[in-house]
Amino acid sequence: MKIAISGKGGVGKTLLASLLAQTFNKSGYRVIAIDADPDANLAVTLGLPDAGKVTPISEMKELIEERTETQSGKRNPYFKLNPRVDDIPNRYSLKHNGIRLLVMGPLKKGGSGCYCPENALLVALLAHLLVARDEVVVLDMAAGIEHLGRGTARAVDKLIVVVEPGRNSLETAHRIARLAKDIGLENIAVVGNKVHNQREREFITSGLTGFELLGFIPYDQTMMDADISGKSFVNASPSITSAVNGIYQKLMIAVKT
Predict the structure, then answer these.
(1) What is the distance between the alpha carbons of residues 254 and 257, in angstroms, rounded to a whole number?
(2) pLDDT tens-digit readout, 197-227
């Protein structure tokens, strides 16, 4: 299964990505978690030691130059658009508690040619992860789908948009859905996070009619307490663990059907 997770900043994308990765792993699947969010917090959430020292692929200049056949400090109008990437997941990922983590880094923006080789490598790498690998892939993205192109979008089994009770969050969900459909990604679902009560559930449901709803994750102060104290999120909140297990079950049913 290939899962991409997006949503407005701060809604809990990374938390859901880490908990789903752990749930799949505990269920016996090989899992690779991909951090494509510019904030790059998935390593911390997964509990990797020295998470702050992880170097994103987009910053590995020697690797980028080697694979795209470019040279640092020089103008590179021509570069390899289909660089070799099949060995990168195993060579450059970190493994913790049975889960592989690969930090992509953001796609570079702007007109400068020096950015293009980096983007070429990232795009080719993500296409390989989604199309050629047979692990469960959990992709944590920013509030957009910049890393996904028309070719790779078809390999995504489910785009999960995480929302919280708030109009800006719901508007972002609608925007992401429009962008996804523009590239042919139709399997879109929503998860409501930080939900306090039934009123907030109804607010999300009524504001996202037509979306598949995978479930709600309750607000739980124990998760914030775990973050402050540096403790693992795993099993920190039984209510959240139960909610994520329910989301996992719905994903599995969707794949089987």
Answers:
(1) 5
(2) 999 999 999 999 999 999 999 998 887 777 7
Say whether 175 sits in a helix, a strand or coil.
helix
Q: Residue 170 and residue 192: Cα distance in Å, rounded?
A: 10
> What's 2-256's CATH class?
alpha beta
Q: Output the pLDDT for position 113.
A: 41
Rg value, the chain, Cα:
18
- Taking the domains of the chain in order of start, what are their residue ranges? 2-256
DSSP 131-150: HT--SEEEEEE-SS-TT--H
Tokens of 99: 């889960």
Q: Does the pLDDT of residue 158 top 80, yes or no?
A: yes
Identity of residue 29: Y
Tell me the C-alpha distance between 39 and 41, whole Å: 6
Contact call for residues 7 and 163 (beta carbons, < 8 A): yes
Mean pLDDT of 248-255: 88
Instruction: Count other Cβ atoms within 10 Å, centred on residue 7.
Output: 25
CA dihedral 13, 16, 21, 26 (to 10 degrees): 170
Which H or E run includes 205?
A: helix 198-207
In contact, 36 and 61? CB cutoff 8 Å: no
Residue with tokens 């269920």: 27
pLDDT of residue 1: 93
Q: What is the pTM of this model?
A: 0.90
pLDDT tens-digit series, residues 79-128: 887 899 999 999 999 999 999 999 998 777 654 444 588 888 998 999 99
Widest Cα–Cα separation across the chain: 58
Q: Collapse the DSSP code of 162 into the 3-class scheme (helix H, G, I; strand E, B; otherwise coil) and give the result.
A: strand
